[in-house]
């Protein structure tokens, strides 16, 4: 599955953004719903870290402790899209945000090597 992240931008601290991760290419609705989708982020000089994950039907989700309560992941399989709503943005949220796909949904979704496909990333910059 091909993924494309979008929705990033420059925002002031305290603001909100909604990122989108859309499947593209020769992908049917049925195929997209087979994939668990996660969001990761990578700040300058830091390793890429797990942010959130959502299961195939959108019934279960998993969040990193550091962002819990401010980030909400959701999906619309009819639109082949997963969303990441980010509220109360902080300067430390500045990073490139990536979406990624895998087939399973487990307790620990943070291992990057277990993902099959990655999107190209979208830049989020939060000014203080």
What is the number of helical segments per DSSP (H or I, 4+ residues)?
A: 1
Instruction: Give the strand tally.
Output: 11
Q: Tell me, rounded to a whole number, the average pLDDT.
A: 93
* Overall helicity: under 10%
Rg of Cα set: 14 Å
Give the overall form.
Answer: globular
- Please give the largest β-sheet: 7 strands, mixed
Q: Give the uncertain stretches in residue-range form.
A: none
Percent range for β-strand residues = over 45%
Task: Give the termini distance in whole angstroms.
Answer: 37 Å
Secondary structure class reads mainly beta
Give the topology string: H per helix, E per strand.
EEEHEEEEEEEE
Task: Write structural notes for this entry.
- This protein is mostly beta strands and 128 residues long.
- The chain contains one helix and eleven strands.
- The strands form two sheets. Strands 2, 4, 5, 6, 9, 10 and 11 form a seven-stranded mixed β-sheet that branches. Strands 1-3-8-7 form a four-stranded antiparallel β-sheet, with no helix packed on it.
- The radius of gyration is 14 Å and the shape is globular.
For this entry, give a set of tags:
128 residues; mainly beta; 1 helix
